[in-house]
Amino acid sequence: MLTVTQAIVLAKVKYGERKLIVSAYTKEYGMMSFAVNNSARSASTHAGGAAQLMNIVEVEFNLQGNKQIQQIRNVHVVTPLHNIRHDPAKIAQTLFIADFTLHAIRHEQTGSGLFDYITQTVRQLDNSPVPLPDLHIRYVVNILRYIGILPNTDNYTAGATFDIDNSSFLTSFSPCQPHTADADTARLLMLFCNLPPYTNDCGNIATTRTGRNLLTRLLLDYSMAHIPNFPRLQSFDILCQLFD
Questions:
Q1: Are 31 and 66 in contact (CB under 8 A)?
Q2: CB 171: neighbour CB atoms within 10 A?
Q3: Which of 34, 41, 90, 219 is the 20 to 30 Å CA partner of 181?
Q4: Which residues contact 198 (CB under 8 A, 6 or more apart)?
């Protein structure tokens, strides 16, 4: 069945001499894999649009439900990204967001609300004239909320730490637990979790590079503990060097 849908490019791998296998989150069908021609003749219509991470594209393909990889017939870019490709900080955040999205929502069903939020985030990052050092944290928190595993902050009290494995805040009187985030990082987690959902407004939360990195590390450790087969993301290492 000939099908047209919008998609967000999350990953690509070379397959043979003439093809790429592209992983993308689609608006109507959720996560899908596509085979894309990578020859010089087709680069302008196929690989050029589908090979750039976080490109928002429209893909045309014959939907074959019994196949894990669909063959793209045509693809074009819906929203050209003008600034992300030329800003080292935005490149690093884009790589991290694509990496996290790929592994966090791999098994999620389709949802236009999630697709719209991801595309909103990409456009915001591309269009912003100023750095957005907390954007990737806000994004991760919103994705965890969407897939239903955001930590509950109702039992947070000042000075509490955070038990990653049990997704619970521990009072200062609780016995020391392994795999626990310190009080400062737990407080940042509570503040970000309590922001309005599905926006990237960080309110008046003040972060430092150290605090930001510790919170991102906490969120990744939490994802590894609660999302099946979630890996350690190498893209995080680059983020650690950004934003004084």
A1: no
A2: 12
A3: 90
A4: 113, 117, 142, 145, 146
Beta strand ranges found along 63-134 (DSSP E): 69-79
Q: Are 90 and 126 in contact (CB under 8 A)?
A: yes
Q: Return the SS3 of 215.
A: helix
Q: Note whether 121 and 139 are within 8 A (CB).
A: yes
| 3-state SS, residue 240 | coil
> Running DSSP on this structure, what letter comes out for residue 24?
E
Please report, in tens digits, the pLDDT of each residue of the chain (244 residues total). Answer: 899 999 999 999 988 777 889 999 999 999 999 998 875 444 444 556 667 889 999 999 989 878 899 998 889 999 888 889 889 999 999 999 999 999 999 876 666 689 999 999 999 999 999 889 999 999 999 999 999 999 999 999 999 999 999 999 998 656 667 789 999 999 999 999 999 998 888 888 989 999 999 999 999 999 999 999 999 999 999 888 876 5
Angle at 226 between CA 206 and CA 198, to 5 degrees: 45
pTM above 0.70, yes or no: yes
Exposure string of 198-211, with b = 16+ CB inside 10 Å and e = fewer, is: eebebeeeebeeee
C-alpha 196: how far from its chain's center? 18
With 0-12 / 13-18 / 19 or more C-beta atoms within 10 angstroms meaning exposed / middle / buried, residue 40 is exposed
CA dist 28 and 110 (Å) reads 6
DSSP secondary structure letter of residue 242? -
